[in-house]
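hey m, so remember when u said the C-alpha cells were messed up on ur end? i reran from scratch. heres the input so u can diff it against urs
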Amino acid sequence: MKSITFRGAAGIGALLGATALVAVSVLPAHAADPSLDATKAVQQNFTPVPDFSGLVKQIMPAVVSVDVKLKIDNTSDNDSDDNQAQNGLPPGFPQIPGFPPGFPFGFGQPQQPQAVEAKGSGFIINANGTIVTNNHVVKGAKTVTVTLADGDNFPAKIIGTDPKTDLAVLKIDAGKPLPFVELGDSKDVQVGQWVIAMGNPFGLGNTVTAGIVSALGRDIGDGPYDRFIQTDAPINEGNSGGPLLNQKGQVIGVNTAILSPTGGSVGIGFAITSDMVKRVVTQLIAHGKVTRGFLGVSAQMISPQMAQALKLPGANANKDGALIAAVAPNSPAAKAGLKPGDVITAVNGQTVKTPGDLAADIADIDPSSKADITYLQDGAKKDVSVAVAEMPNNPDASFQEGSQGGNSQQSTSHGALGLTLAPLTTDLRNQLNLPQDATGAVIVDVKPNSLADQAGLQQGDLLVGVGPTNITSPDEAVAAIEAARKSGAGAVALRIVRQGQALFVGIGLSGNNAGGN
C-alpha cells in the first residue's frame, strides 16, 4: 500500500483539481469494500458505555466506611523495626549495648503498645442500620466506627462473624431510618456484564470504580466455600467489605480480595456472591453464628490416572465429581454406606463437578434435613438419601483413617513402583502423629524418578488402602498392588494419609501411565 503525504493546502487543491479534470466517477466506499458494510452494522448495534451517575447518586448514601481500632501485638523479635520503634529507635538504627534505649539520640524510654487504625468498607442492608462487611476488616477489633457518606459517624456493634466465608455483620443506631441497598441474585450474573464497585480505598471514602465481570466461580484457596465473582473493576486496599453492584443498583457481591504483585489493583479482584451473603447474613443476624450441614466425607479432585484406576467414566476427569478420600466414622456418609473411592456427582439434583461444589452444597443444607446424593460406586451409579448432621466445630477431628488389624514385622519393597513399606510400629505412629487405632503400611523410602516418585508419593505417607481394599500391613499392600497389575489395570489408586489428611494418589503401573495428583 502506498503512503501519500500532503504538504500544505496548495497540494490538496491541486490534487482535487486534477481529479475533476479527468472526470473520475466517485462511488460510495462501502460498494467497493464489502467489509465496511459489516462495520456499519456493528456501529448501528453498538451500545454506548453506560452512564452510572444516577445509580451512584442513589446508592452512595448506603455505602459506609468502617474504621477499626486494633491493639499492637508487642511480641515481635528484638531486631524488628516495630520493636526498635517501641525502644525509641527509628527503623534501621542498631541498639548500642550497655546504653539506655535510644542513646545517643535521646528518644527516651520504650513506648507502650498503641492502638492503630485500619480502614475498610461496608454497606447498609436495612433501614435499622444493619451493615455487611468482611470478617477480616473487623477481626481483632477493639472498637468499630462507621462513617456514612454524609460524614456522620457512629459506634458499631459486631453482631456476628463468619471466618469461613469472610463475612461480618455490624449494627449502628443512627436514631433515624437509613438508606439501604438491595441484595440481588448472583446466580443471574453473566461474564461480561458491567459492574460498579464502591467503597473506601486507601481511606478515600465515597469512591466509585467500574468494570466488567471477568469470570465466575473462582476458587482462590481463601476458604472452603470459595465461589468468587472475578472483576476488573479496580479494587484496592480499603475496598474490602464494599458492594459490587449491577446496573440495577443491586448488590451482587462483597469485594473481598485482589490478586496483586504490586499491592494495588491490576484488574483482578474477587467478590463474595450475594447468594452466599444472603444465607450467611441471615444466620448471623438471627443467631450470631452460622450453622452448616455436615456429611462426613473428605473429598478431592479426580486426576486422569485416578479415573483410570477407579474405572470411572467421563472424558474430563477433573470436572466429573468429587472423589471421597475418607469417611468419618458414625457420620451421615458412613451410615448411608458411602465409602472411600466413591465419586459424588450430584446433591439434590445439582451437578457436583469439584470438591468445592460438594462442600458448598452440603454446607447450605440445614442440619437434620435430607440430602439426595448421586454417586458412583465400583463403576455403578447409585442414589441415596442422607440425613445431614450439623457441622462440628472441628470437622477434621472427625476423620480417623484405618481399621484394626495385625502388622507385619518386616519392611517390604515393591521394586516396580519404587516403594519401600514398613509396618506401623508404635515409634512410627508417634513420629507421624497418628491416632492410636490407625493401621496401615508406612512408606519409608521412595526411589527417585520411580513411578511412585512421579505420582507424588512421599516418605512418611501412611498407605491405608489400595482401591477399595483396606491395608493393615506391607504384605497386604504389595499383594493388592500385584492383584491390580495382574488384572490388566493400567493404574492403581493408593489411599494414603499425609499430615492428617486422607487422599487418593493415582499411580501408573507402567512408565507410560505414571503420574499423580
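this time it looks ok to me. The longest strand covers residues 207-218. if urs says something different then somethings off w ur setup not the seq
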